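hey so i finaly got around to running the thing on Multiple C2 and transmembrane domain-containing protein 1 from Sarcophilus harrisii. pasting the sequence first so u can double check i didnt mess up the copy paste, my clipboard has been acting weird all day
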Amino acid sequence: MLDSYKLKSTSSLPFPYSKRLNTIGTSNADLPLVDPGMYQLDITLRRGQNLAARDRGGTSDPYVKFKIGGKEVFRSKIIHKNLNPVWEEKACILIDQPREPLYIKVFDYDFGLQDDFMGSAFLDLTLLELKRPTDVTLTLKDPHYPDHDLGSILLSVILTPKEGEQRDVELSKTEVLGSFFSVKSFWWRSYRPPAFPALGFSRAERQNLCCQNTQFQTQSLRLSDLHRKSHLWRGIVSITLIEGRDLKAMDSNGFSDPYVKFRLGHQKYKSKIMPKTLNPQWREQFDFHLYEERGGIIDITAWDKDAGKRDDFIGRCQIDLSALSREQTHKLELQLEEGEGHLVLLVTLTASATVSISDLSVNSLEDQKEREAILKRYSPMRMFHNVKDVGFLQVKVIRAEGLMAADVTGKSDPFCVVELNNDRLLTHTVYKNLNPEWNKIFTFNIKDIHSVLEVTVYDEDRDRSADFLGKVAIPLLTIQNGEQKAYVLKNKQLTGPTKGVIYLEIDVIFNAVKASIRTLIPKEQKYIEEENRLSKQLLLRNFIRMKRCVMVLVNAAYYINSCFDWDSPPRSLAAFMVVEDMLEDEEEEDDKDDKDSEKKGFINKIYAIQEVCVSVQNILDEVASFGERIKNTFNWTVPFLSWLAIAALCVFTVILYFIPLRYIVLVWGINKFTKKLRSPYAIDNNELLDFLSRVPSDVQVVQYQELKQDPSHSPCKRKKNNLG
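ok and heres what it spat out for the 3d tokens, dont ask me to read them lol
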């Protein structure tokens, strides 16, 4: 039988620690301040009871945030229109000190607006009995209105100490980014002296605590020999969203505009929107990193897109990865809960890719045997073996110089994030230093040679999100192997320089045939990022880019007109008929739609106008990028792609010389018409568009352009000047 007790809210107990309550059994309240092992906190968010109504309909859309040390460590899913929600979500959190209380905050989700606060409470982890499941009921309170009854939250928690040997393994895993804004600060907090309140601790105890912490800092900064090359995630989950069946109609026309959201921990994806259908066909693929050995739960929600107002919830379902066998594709037909219809998915669990972190003393490419094995793996003789494994990338993050001072002390606490598509790894933090040295080696598995390596430097802050210090974006095809280079850091938009340089040494080994084949396959989608917002500057820039593309077409039209100035009357007449057909007025919509639009509120109209402007902004960007990519293909912006296009044209010319065109068209038509029969769940793609998606637009060319270092701002130069 689980122990059950009720804790008071944050308004009734002093901050930051509550008064200790007497519980049955031995708690961990009397543990020493510095424990050699970390702690694992397993939380099961059960349900909420009698929560506060924050919406006009007398309901709420609640979700829960968990925080430790001011950092968000977990966020639950949203339960729509329910004051007694049932979550049954699990979270596994690593903590270095159980004396930090766990804060729980409940919010009401509001689309497009600030979420409403529904109450908070906290759990004193020192009251928990180690290695024993405990049921907890937390009463929610609002500090500004302590008399209001805001309901309660039910949890199940288990606090388990980690052994000292395991701690080193976990520390190496903390270099995984995951959600570094949420968890990085308290995972690495043992690197700085802890800021415990003086109340209740003697001066000698605090000094002893700092000394022990300093000793542990020296040990933890060195990765153990045993785990230097440990893999940072245990597998990859590949999900193919095939179709939806008999979804619920959410619009007045009897249809929906459905799209699907996926979430595994902090990894999120969003499918494309399928307009006016109840049986959508998506054919999209998404890849998740699997960090837990026992698997995890993938939350899936289906939504109906509505312009100018909150999207309608269609239904939800889940996938328990622990119930699926590995190295096998599973076809799942999932019934949507809290709604109608089914989703059809293909799910495959595969082994982990080659991704690792090590010190400079462990270099795969300097070891002759390992280097030969890597070169053999990507040799031309193995061009058709595992086509998805295109190449090998090794990044040495050596040091940075002259960084921006982000703290009031004139210093920064920098750490470095290395990203390749959805693979994100990070270094340790070097505290109070503007010229940090990391000396770390990161290895990645290349799935697309046209990917861009992004290296970002952040300043770690204990009580808020990390501050941005600088960023560089380096296309893999522009890398010169084995050369240590100083890259000037850029701003967030990668349009101009910021303060500081970072020293990197990068090596790329890849198979050119595999890379060429992968060029004709759709690009890997990135995790859901911040949605595009309306920007006057961005809108104007996209308009100018679009104007350039249009002017190219206009000039081409003038050229054609000068060459064929009414020399062919039938052609001119045909062009006139086409233009007349394009200018034909569209039919007016029904009066019912006009009446519905008149009933919209003022705020909804503003949202609708803003969404239309954002759509226009994005369409201008897509059209302009398409034209720029065609231009950059022919002006050799990326030589690899230009040579690939020439090789494809040469092969097609040779084939056309020996085989008549009608037979080629016949084979192409048979392939297109029988593709669905041969592979019913294949993802639709257009090889030409996939090729053009790899060619950078003019904006991306500027973002990827390497800036030259200003000698006057070099730290070495400044030292010489100071000596003079």
